[in-house]
Amino acid sequence: MKKSADRILARFANTDATSSRRAPVRSGASGRLVILPASFGSMGDQALALGAQRGLRHSEVEVRFLAPGPAAPWRQVGIDRIQSMVELMRRHSLHPTATARRLYSGNSVTVVGADTVGGDYEHRFLAHRVAALNESAASGHRVQLVNFSISAEPTPLALSLLRRLDSGVELHARDVNSQRRAQGFLQREVGVAPDVGALLECARVEQHAAEYCVLVPNAHLATHFEFSESDLVDSWSDLATWLGRKMKVFLLPHDLREHPGDLALVNRIAERVNLDSVRPWVVADAREAKGVISRAVLLISARMHACVAALSSAVPTVGISYLGKFEGQFEWFDVPRVVVPFERATDTALIKRLAEQLLNERNVRGSQLKLGDFGWL
To answer: 256 lies in a domain?
Structure first.
């Protein structure tokens, strides 16, 4: 029922997505609005916001962030200039209100796309972002859809929305695979830059062991994809037990909200393993998560931004892919790394073999990205 309503309301918004091409509303000096992909919650979404803020801190114009949901939690992690989008979206369709149209017309708009552009999440949010970009473009501002992944099979409605983007909207994918796919789907130029979460700064953390590895499961594989929770508990418990006999193992929940349930999953894994060397490490924010990961000798993660935190800190990484966004992203980093395809996400024999190879390599190379690598900033 919810998915049907989303499609119907997004189609309604789709018919209005080019309405910004009426007489433009121009203003004087403009700022830059950065629309974040999701409400506050996961470490990945925090990494995107904090990384973008760091990359834009020397901007010549005022940069403000917009996000679905309340603004207060973002301020607590250091995103000060932020506004909730709730008052900017119509209640059911989520399409821009008149107030939102004036705001978008008067400013440059940058949409951080992440996973929202292919229809994997609500189409109504994508429709709002397309309208925001078109509204800003109609007033002559620089507009960008950046830092996005797109799978090999986006939904037809998502493609219909993306094809309504004004020709002046700059597109920047976050990996070469998404760049190639977007160019094919949209028949227009698409740039490429690393995921901006790589610019996230580390917080200092106490080192609880001379040598440890970090495991980051993903409850989404059970709530949104084909695996069951018992599949995930079984496979991650097996990995944690194997590694826990070699060294300290920390299970890091990527999203502390009740849904999708990363914290509950981590606790179930720890209870199943029942080794003193294996325990959860619940962090306060994304910077602390990167601090924990940056000191590890190995990361195994089914969450992409944990992988980005590790690779940008020169930590060998095994990534367990979903939504087709890991493979190209890993190519940005000259660090020992491997990707396990989604269909083998619970193949612990394969994951152990790959992890063992990385542990034996131990010839970690450099990994630093430069601001110049992020052309859209």
So the answer is: yes
Residue 114: give the domain boundaries. 2-24+31-199
115 and 17 in a common domain:
yes
Residue 237 lies in a domain: yes
Residue 371 in domain: no
The DSSP annotation for 106-133 comes to TSEEEEEEETSTTSSS-HHHHHHHHHHH
Q: Say what angle helices 98-105 and 123-138 make with each other, to 10 degrees.
A: 50
* Sheet strands side by side (includes 278-280): 278-280, 248-251, 212-216, 298-301, 317-320, 337-340
Q: Are 137 and 101 in contact (CB under 8 A)?
A: no
Phi, psi of 347 (to 5 degrees): -85, 85
Tens digits of residue pLDDT in 66-119: 999 999 999 999 999 999 999 999 988 899 999 999 999 999 999 999 999 999
Does this model's pTM top 0.85? My answer is yes
Distance CA 158, CA 111 (A): 15
Work out how many domains the chain is built from and give that number.
2
Query: How many helices (DSSP H) and strands (DSSP E) are in the chain?
Result: 14, 13
The torsion angles phi and psi of 148, rounded to 5 degrees, stand at -115, 150
Among all chains, which residue has been given the structure tokens 């970690």?
364
pLDDT digits (tens, 9 = 90+) for 14-52: 545 544 444 444 444 489 999 999 999 999 999 999 999
